[in-house]
Specification:
homodimer; alpha+beta; Arc Repressor Mutant, subunit A; SH3 type barrels; 6-stranded antiparallel sheet; two-stranded antiparallel ribbon; 8 helices; about 40% helix; DNA-binding
Chain lengths: ~220, ~220
DNA sequence: TAAAAAGTTTAGACTTGTCTAAAAAAATAA
DNA sequence: TTATTTTTTTAGACAAGTCTAAACTTTTTA
């Protein structure tokens, strides 16, 4: 098995890979709240284990083996988040830190039984897909509300920002997963948007519109 | 918070304290599968943190602060074991290793909610008491079946040996928690015992009789 | 396209927790 | 009660993962 530190590096590299093909040392350092020099050391270890492709100064990509491990950790993280919200009734902005610890529990059998216990959920409380035991999941397309035009609509299906502050704001505005929204107006001046959500109109900034995702 | 290693030392010292008031360096080393020299190093650290009372060559006892931490870890361990057996349907001999990892998840709120989710169980799957959030639990008296005389009876309520091999043996013999047993005969030669359990008679060795506990 | 800036790696050090080997203390035995 | 054995501690070393400071690449800018 891999160490806790190795698992966290692989997970970070996976997440960063979704935005950039090659992930840089500094990006990883920022994500893990560590220093670039520490990252370089770890990249060498991960490359020795054939979990990443690494060439000095060129950034890294995950190998198939590395991606498999990353996806397994992400599966565990999201299943535990689902458990915390659905079974223990935590709020969606409270579960990330706990799941950061729980994702490192090693037993595969445990996580498969947890999956079954919850009846094989497809998404975590933030709308992110939960990989199956082989690491597969549907890469359904989401886009930010900011990409919509007036009179277009969609169903809230995910968030780009997972910070408690953002999630709490959404909760308060009733902008939660599954809600149907329609853009009724876009303000020229600041590109903020007015949404129709159920019976009410909600005014959101462009910042929020960029971080709130809908299914197409 | 304390490190994983510190938590494991405190837990071991707590368990060993149940048999001996002062716990020796070698006992701890054996329990943690480490060397006496490593134990000495850690004992200094724990003493510096005022979690144990330590005088060179004299063995250790837990301070109130150390015992509180130990009991909290044991609470977490036993609640997770209960979860694994009752909710995920693992067998009682399969859960120890998983709980060894899960007991280090730090959130107190999480464990309190888990406790509530399972309706505040009083004992783990092996019959060991689950401390409440303040570390309190009823120290009800158990004694080994080996202490019984012919025609005396009791209810199986715990085990002294938690090894999978022993637990699997008990499971196969239907000697599980809650079963009512009565001693029908004690063989002079080897002190093995014949028990009446429900409709059948079961012959157990003295070794087993010493490790299987009943409520008085 | 040369100089400056930004990003990355190396070198050497530190912490945690572990180890072996040797020294010291305590317990046991003759 | 001295000698032997057992237990414990100390000394010094090591691996993992991190850090700072300095050196080296790459990218950007003028």
């Amino acid at each position: 098995m891999n160490t806790l530190a190795e698992e966290n590096y692989l997970k970070s590299i996976y997440h960063l890979s979704l935005n950039d093909v090659n992930v840089s040392t500094n990006q990883i350092a920022a994500a893990l709240n560590t220093k670039a020099a520490s990252v370089t050391d770890m990249l060498k270890k991960l490359a020795d284990k054939a979990l990443i492709n690494y060439a000095k100064y060129q950034g890294v990509t995950l190998t198939a083996a590395g991606e498999k491990i990353a996806l397994h950790i992400i599966r565990k993280h999201r299943l535990w988040e689902y458990f915390l919200v659905e079974k223990l009734h935590f709020k969606w902005d409270e579960v990330h830190e706990m799941a950061e610890e729980m994702e490192h529990i090693s037993s595969i059998e445990l996580i498969d039984r947890l999956d079954k216990f919850m009846d094989y959920p497809k998404h975590d409380p933030h709308g992110d897909p939960i990989p199956d035991r082989n690491g597969n999941f549907k890469k359904y397309e989401l886009k930010p509300i900011a990409a919509l035009n007036v009179n277009e609509n969609g169903i809230i299906s995910g968030v780009r920002d997972h910070s408690p502050a953002f999630l709490q704001y959404l909760e308060k505005q009733q902008l939660t997963i599954g809600k149907k929204i329609k853009v009724t107006e876009i303000i020229d001046y600041d590109l903020s948007m007015i949404l129709q959500v159920e019976q009410t109109e909600i005014h959101i900034s462009r910042e929020v519109a960029k971080n709130l995702l809908i299914a197409i």
